[in-house]
């Protein structure tokens, strides 16, 4: 498809400051309105607008790439359906929210952050007069806490609803209640004063179920996609799907036809393996075969690295993106003509445990049919596309239609706390599918232990403050404790550094001597929390005194991930701001003392404490799980007691983010909370 001419920027819109951020790299090219008119959805525009005007709730199903996410919010705005109020469009993933906002801002010829903006955790770019806001579902749930009726939105669009993330399900249930409140007739009025419209969208939706959930909501099907995607299957199953993807890639590459390639793999490990194999074989190719630029894309990669995939491919080379399912829905990656689908994903499952906190497992499994269709839909967005599935047709046919909703398989602690803030109980909430009972029980136990709810399960003042902090409730409790124990300065830093999306230390100590040296340099005898604190503090000093080039080389010399550290700085800024708002003095320091920091950690992570056993393994104090310390930890010798951030189950159970504590510390915290379980 030919590149479109650049758009003229409109004059800055009233009430909005121009975005100070760098122009987004998500938008491959600009788009004039005639381009918008060519999208399949445009043919049904008058009808869609009529239906949206008529109904409170509309379920809209349309093929991948037909124009739902970029066009529907604009139709709503242009037809005045939102009555001058803001339109929220939820996205399950951060990259979807930011890239769609960038695209729509470009289509409308406005700077991002003015009339079109986005809001994702720890990053927002919108202003009071924003009219179209792309927002992650988790952030919209957070907005519910301060505005239970979401009253400043005229229309709320739940996009990619088929993914049934935990927060999407919370929103769907909340919207049902909000619709009753906002669309009912107040006494003495013959019209609602602030009605709300809800649109549920997806390409692969069990539309009837959603319609029934909303009492028989109107369904609209949008036919057609802009460009065809031809789908191929292997004749037989491929036991080594990574190798099969590698072969398929080089068949495409050596055929010399133009177009970039997107390969779907289950996780980071497979991505890193395939990345080095492609680079290795690409170097062996004869001269004349075009060079390959390989980019990884997974959720723990820093957002700025993720956004590299949207940059235009240099002339005469081929881009190959290796992605997990984070690239499966919502996004358009310019240049992608071929998709290779291994048919595998990682599924997160929470195993709830009595009294102790449960364990998150992340296991590889076959994808659903809905995912396979979404993956194919990433091709054919700018021209004809191809999808090579490295599994046979019968394997596709026997896939489950959709994965189990997250509400039936995830940790519910944070959601229960969020609902408590809305005055709601998870048990009485009208969800599309009932939450897992054990996870509800385990979440309530955790909140009671943390002091977020009292013995009648009512929200406490502490619980309300914890809900304000956009981190895991256990870390929120740790921060709250730091205000009382005089170490908020240190604890906020520790929590910020552990809340980043990627690892702070580069390399693995088992096979990288530079990584070992770096850890040694910052190592604190108490363990990972104060080691991370040392590294983060050292970085803060360098940032305040050195140029950005010097900071970069300092990070490289110390095997530290500069992007993760700068993300930690941003999280720190936001946490300090929220702490100030909820009455925690952020500048009290415990100086060189470590004890108060460890005490706060035990208060927040008391369910994550363990005592050493005669066989050298650790056993939970409040549960029965037995674990080893993760090899990436600086704590390697045996100690009587530890506190850890999380348990991960791979080949065995590992505790990650570990510090050494005394048994007496654990006992003293226990004596405070023993009546709660
Ligand atoms: N960043 C972008 N760069 C180039 N083209 C884009 C971009 N974003 C969207 N498009 C174009 O707009 C079309 C519609 O995209 P949109 O995201 O609205 O579709 P959709 O129906 O929501 O798809 P999906 O169900 O896959 O999320 C794409 O097929 C593509 O042609």
From TrEMBL:
<feature type="domain" description="Helicase C-terminal">
    <location>
        <begin position="245"/>
        <end position="423"/>
    </location>
</feature>
<dbReference type="GO" id="GO:0005524">
    <property type="term" value="F:ATP binding"/>
</dbReference>
<dbReference type="Pfam" id="PF07717">
    <property type="entry name" value="OB_NTP_bind"/>
</dbReference>
<dbReference type="InterPro" id="IPR048333">
    <property type="entry name" value="HA2_WH"/>
</dbReference>
<dbReference type="GO" id="GO:0005730">
    <property type="term" value="C:nucleolus"/>
</dbReference>
<protein>
    <recommendedName>
        <fullName>RNA helicase</fullName>
        <ecNumber>3.6.4.13</ecNumber>
    </recommendedName>
</protein>
<dbReference type="InterPro" id="IPR011709">
    <property type="entry name" value="DEAD-box_helicase_OB_fold"/>
</dbReference>
<dbReference type="InterPro" id="IPR002464">
    <property type="entry name" value="DNA/RNA_helicase_DEAH_CS"/>
</dbReference>
<keyword id="KW-0347">Helicase</keyword>
<dbReference type="Pfam" id="PF21010">
    <property type="entry name" value="HA2_C"/>
</dbReference>
<feature type="domain" description="Helicase ATP-binding">
    <location>
        <begin position="49"/>
        <end position="223"/>
    </location>
</feature>
<keyword id="KW-0378">Hydrolase</keyword>
<dbReference type="InterPro" id="IPR049945">
    <property type="entry name" value="AAA_22"/>
</dbReference>
<dbReference type="GO" id="GO:0003725">
    <property type="term" value="F:double-stranded RNA binding"/>
</dbReference>
<dbReference type="InterPro" id="IPR014001">
    <property type="entry name" value="Helicase_ATP-bd"/>
</dbReference>
<keyword id="KW-0547">Nucleotide-binding</keyword>
<dbReference type="Pfam" id="PF04408">
    <property type="entry name" value="WHD_HA2"/>
</dbReference>
<dbReference type="GO" id="GO:0045943">
    <property type="term" value="P:positive regulation of transcription by RNA polymerase I"/>
</dbReference>
<keyword id="KW-0067">ATP-binding</keyword>
<dbReference type="InterPro" id="IPR003593">
    <property type="entry name" value="AAA+_ATPase"/>
</dbReference>
<dbReference type="GO" id="GO:1990904">
    <property type="term" value="C:ribonucleoprotein complex"/>
</dbReference>
<dbReference type="InterPro" id="IPR027417">
    <property type="entry name" value="P-loop_NTPase"/>
</dbReference>
<dbReference type="GO" id="GO:0003724">
    <property type="term" value="F:RNA helicase activity"/>
</dbReference>
<dbReference type="GO" id="GO:0016887">
    <property type="term" value="F:ATP hydrolysis activity"/>
</dbReference>
<dbReference type="InterPro" id="IPR001650">
    <property type="entry name" value="Helicase_C-like"/>
</dbReference>
<dbReference type="Pfam" id="PF00271">
    <property type="entry name" value="Helicase_C"/>
</dbReference>
<dbReference type="InterPro" id="IPR007502">
    <property type="entry name" value="Helicase-assoc_dom"/>
</dbReference>
<feature type="region of interest" description="Disordered">
    <location>
        <begin position="1"/>
        <end position="40"/>
    </location>
</feature>
<dbReference type="Pfam" id="PF13401">
    <property type="entry name" value="AAA_22"/>
</dbReference>
């Amino acid at each position: 498809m030919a590149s479109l001419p650049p758009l003229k920027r409109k004059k800055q819109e009233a009430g909005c400051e121009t975005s100070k951020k760098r122009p987004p790299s998500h938008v491959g090219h600009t788009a004039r309105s005639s381009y918008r008119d060519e999208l399949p959805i445009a043919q049904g525009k008058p009808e869609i607008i009529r239906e949206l005007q008529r109904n409170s709730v509309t379920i809209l199903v349309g093929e991948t790439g037909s124009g739902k996410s970029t066009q529907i919010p604009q139709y709503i705005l242009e037809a005045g359906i939102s009555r001058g109020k803001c339109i929220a469009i939820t996205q399950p993933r951060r990259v979807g929210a930011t890239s769609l906002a960038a695209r729509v801002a470009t289509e409308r010829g406005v700077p991002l952050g003015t009339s079109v903006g986005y809001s994702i955790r720890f990053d927002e770019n919108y202003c009071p007069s924003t009219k179209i806001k792309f927002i992650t579902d988790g952030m919209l749930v957070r907005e519910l806490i301060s505005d239970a009726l979401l009253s400043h939105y005229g229309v709320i669009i739940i996009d990619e609803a088929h993914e049934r993330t935990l927060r999407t399900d919370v929103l769907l249930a909340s919207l049902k209640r909000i619709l009753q409140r906002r669309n009912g007739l107040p006494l003495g009025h013959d019209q609602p004063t602030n009605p709300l419209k809800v649109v549920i969208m997806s390409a692969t939706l069990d539309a009837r179920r959603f319609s029934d959930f909303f009492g028989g909501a109107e369904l609209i099907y949008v036919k057609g996609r802009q460009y065809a995607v031809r789908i191929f299957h292997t004749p037989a199953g491929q036991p080594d799907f990574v190798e099969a993807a590698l072969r398929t890639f080089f068949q495409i590459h050596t055929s010399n036809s133009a177009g970039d390639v997107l390969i779907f793999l289950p996780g980071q490990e497979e991505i890193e393996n395939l990345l080095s194999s492609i680079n290795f074989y690409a170097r062996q190719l004869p001269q004349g075969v075009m060079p390959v630029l390989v980019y990884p894309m997974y959720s723990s990669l820093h957002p700025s690295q993720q956004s590299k995939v949207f940059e235009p491919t240099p002339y005469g080379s081929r881009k190959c993106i290796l992605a997990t399912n984070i690239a499966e829905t919502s996004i358009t990656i310019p240049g992608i003509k071929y998709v290779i689908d291994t048919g595998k994903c990682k599924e997160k499952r929470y195993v709830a445990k009595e009294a102790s906190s449960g364990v998150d497992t992340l296991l590889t499994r076959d994808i659903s049919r809905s995912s396979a269709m979404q993956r194919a839909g990433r091709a054919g967005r700018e021209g004809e596309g191809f999808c090579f599935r490295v599994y046979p047709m019968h394997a596709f046919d026997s896939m489950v239609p959709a994965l189990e909703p997250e509400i039936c398989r995830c940790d519910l602690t944070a959601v229960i706390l969020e609902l408590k803030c809305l005055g709601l109980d998870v048990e009485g909430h009208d969800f599309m599918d009932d939450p897992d009972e054990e996870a509800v029980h385990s979440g309530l136990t955790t909140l009671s232990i943390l002091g977020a709810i009292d013995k009648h399960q009512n929200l406490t003042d502490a619980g309300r403050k914890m809900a304000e902090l956009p981190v895991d409730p256990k870390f929120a409790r740790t921060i709250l404790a730091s205000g009382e124990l005089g170490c908020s300065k240190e604890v906020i830093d520790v929590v910020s550094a552990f809340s980043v999306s990627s690892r702070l230390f580069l390399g693995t100590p088992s096979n990288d001597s530079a990584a070992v040296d770096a850890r040694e340099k910052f190592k604190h005898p108490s363990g990972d929390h104060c080691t991370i604190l040392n590294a983060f503090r050292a970085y803060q000093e360098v940032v305040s005194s050195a140029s950005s080039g010097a900071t970069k080389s300092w990070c490289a010399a110390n095997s530290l991930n500069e992007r993760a550290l700068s993300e930690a700085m941003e999280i720190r800024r936001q946490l300090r701001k929220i702490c100030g708002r909820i009455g925690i003095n952020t500048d009290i320091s415990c100086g060189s003392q470590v004890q108060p920091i460890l005490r706060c950690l035990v208060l927040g992570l008391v369910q994550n404490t363990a005592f050493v056993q005669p066989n050298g393994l650790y056993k939970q104090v409040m549960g029965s799980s037995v674990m080893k310390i993760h090899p990436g930890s600086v704590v390697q010798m045996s100690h009587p007691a530890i506190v850890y951030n999380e348990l991960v189950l791979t080949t065995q159970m590992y505790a990650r983010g570990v510090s050494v504590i005394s048994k007496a510390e654990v006992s003293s915290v226990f004596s405070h909370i023993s009546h709660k379980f």
